[in-house]
Amino acid sequence: MDRQLELREHIVNLIERHSRQNNGSHPTSIPSLILFRQDKRTTPTHGVHDRSICFVFQGKKEVTLAQELYRYESAEYIAASVDLPVISQVIEASPEAPYLALKLKFTPEQILEVIQESKIQTHPEEHAKRGLFVGKMEEALLDAVKRFVQLLDHPEEIPLLAPLITKEILFRVIQGNHGIALEQIVKDGSGAYRIIHAIDHIKQNFEKPLRIDDLAEIANMSVPSLYRHFKDITAMSPIQFQKHLRLQAARSLLLSEPTKAAEVAFRVGYESPSHFSREYTRMFGLSPIQDIKRLRTLNV
Predict the structure, then answer these.
(1) Which among 31, 104, 190, 223 has most CB atoms closer than 10 A?
(2) What residues does the HTH araC/xylS-type domain cover (predicted)?
(3) What is the C-alpha to C-alpha distance for residues 281 and 101, in angstroms, rounded to an integer?
(4) Using an 8 Å Cβ cutoff, are 103 and 33 in contact?
């Protein structure tokens, strides 16, 4: 049997066993590792793709960032170097061949540590790279991921070996064709490094008015430079980024609390309920009341 196919099949069996063949996301005894299983096509889901690498071993999935579509399948991975609001959907899965994947979360500090310890020759920054990319798993990366998931069968080894194998996985990804997208987030003074401060500010204050001059000062950039670098990395403007966060938060509140749409509109930063309703409908395809009714029906 082909070595890469053998590795993928081994990981498929591990995910199936540790997810107990139940659909959904499954946290593990390794805090940075989450397993995913889904035996049918899903509806599009709005959410924030956190800083992580998602490795797929069976089935197919799509992620939309602004107007960009990213499709990935078995033996491929999608990596996000920053937190990004996206729409995701499993597009190929069945009871016989469920969608199976795992997500490894990481921090900028871990990326910096790998670069420093391995003495990787980093790329000179030409301009900021998109914070989301799809890559293929080569044999060395597959082998490292297999050993990482195997630790779930040996919990006593996790404290020592999980950090080491995490470094190896990040090292393999950084060495890939898109590694510069991870490098750029830890290069002190680079455009991407400074944009992360702007992104963090918006995330922590999305319900407050966004002042572009203040954001540029936080990023230590001119306003034109802020706009250019922000769009290079996130595929959207700061205002669009904030809008996605506000509307996703509003949807979550409407689903989880017996709250009126007008009240939620004010809580997430809108001054006009009618403006909120228009933007909500534009993003989710239905008015707040209709959308939440539909979602609750689907979850019954």
Answers:
(1) 104
(2) 196-294
(3) 32
(4) yes
